[in-house]
Amino acid sequence: MTNALLQLSARDLVKGLRSGDYRAADVMAACLARIEACEPAIRAWAWLDRDKAMSEAARADARRAGGAEPGPLHGLPVGVKDIIDTADMPTQYGTPIHRGRQPAADATVVARLRSAGAIILGKTVTSEHAVFVAGPTRNPHDTARTPGGSSSGSAAAVAAGMVPVALSTQTNGSTIRPASFCGVVGYKPSLGLLPRTGILKQSSVLDHPGVIARNAADAAFVVEAIGGEEIGDEQSLGASAAGLTEAALRDEPPPRLAFVRGPYWQRADPQACAALEAFVAGVGTPVEIVDLPAAFDDAAQILGVIMDAGIAQAYHEDFARARAGMAEVLVRIIERGQGLAATALLDALAARDQLRRSFDALAAPYDAILTLAAPGVAPLVSEGTGDPIFATTWTLIGAPAITLPLLTGAAGLPLGVQLVGGTRRDARLLRAAAWLERGRGSGLHDGRPGNGKRGDVFCASWS
């Protein structure tokens, strides 16, 4: 029964938990047993309190048994990236500068999870200050390889079956890239659909909370429960996330799809390019080939200016008091940001807005644009956390994006297909993503280590 519980989707788990077919304590015990087996090799968690997790699960069971109406996420274990505040757990940003930091309040997304009945299992590892410095986490498909960054722990924990869902964030490629590397689903909603209060800030126009899950409908299910307007966030869309799960479960009609190579295609591994092109050719519905306008060639440079300026502003206190404790790559980013002229930032923001308008016009006829999620499979740990370039453009313009583990790349490792939608068109995007999942038998990689030919050498069998 334990392993059977771990194999259920988040939606099926919650359905059984709400009906009383499953007990939250049994689900939590299954997750903790899996963590016990896998964590020594994977190191996905920055903070765990097993007794507290079991106590929360027992309380959820008691509330339901006592007649309380179960919430929409009743009893669902969730991992939370360690840059998202939790009032009852440390939030340390992956850096010794903030070791022992204890927030006074939950981030809005965490408060909404709890209100919906979810149980916060623990905090997942992040890259230091959520930038390019790798944490200790390893890829469950091959522990010599990176899980990606900066949502490394969230992606690895879901891929290894430790938790069905985890929160992530993305300011460049920090949800899409690790999800692709780890063979799971990573969903970055439109900018402003998920609230951001209580999340480490890097850039107001680039910071996107997200979700790592095992399928598109599960990602939609969680975002629907916690999304919607947040007063005080200037980027908030002012709309609810209702209807996302229903959209993901709709079968007909087939989506309208386009394929974009984009300006950074030459940075991808040839095997990854060939795999995606073969996938597009066999999708089963017409896929139009679309070229982005030449202005998109500058997307990485534009994002770099905005991100450098944002990080310099957001981290100026840490820089002033603890520069010696910062990684050199972060110091360089802050120094670049401090050296930017105001006109350079304003020009970058104006260029970003123009690209956003241009893409929305281009994407309007389609439910989703298909492209690579990453340049290839997860690199070795010694080579860093991987290139985020195939997420950069879509983060810059605030478009919704999701990666599906539908391809196999070099060494039999997972490789994601990224789908991108017009801004604020999350429902259309999720319907297209789930349609592709169903058509491909939920993908060649479903998050189970061993599909990448490496096997579960470090922990007990998944099934």
TrEMBL record:
InterPro entries: Amidase, Amidase_dom, AS_sf
Superkingdom to which the source organism belongs: Bacteria
Stretches for region Disordered: 135-155
Sequence ranges assigned to domain Amidase in this UniProt record: 27-430
Transmembrane portions of the chain: none
Sequence similarity: Belongs to the amidase family.
Any Pfam family matching the protein: Amidase
Protein name listed in UniProt: Asp-tRNA(Asn)/Glu-tRNA(Gln) amidotransferase A subunit family amidase
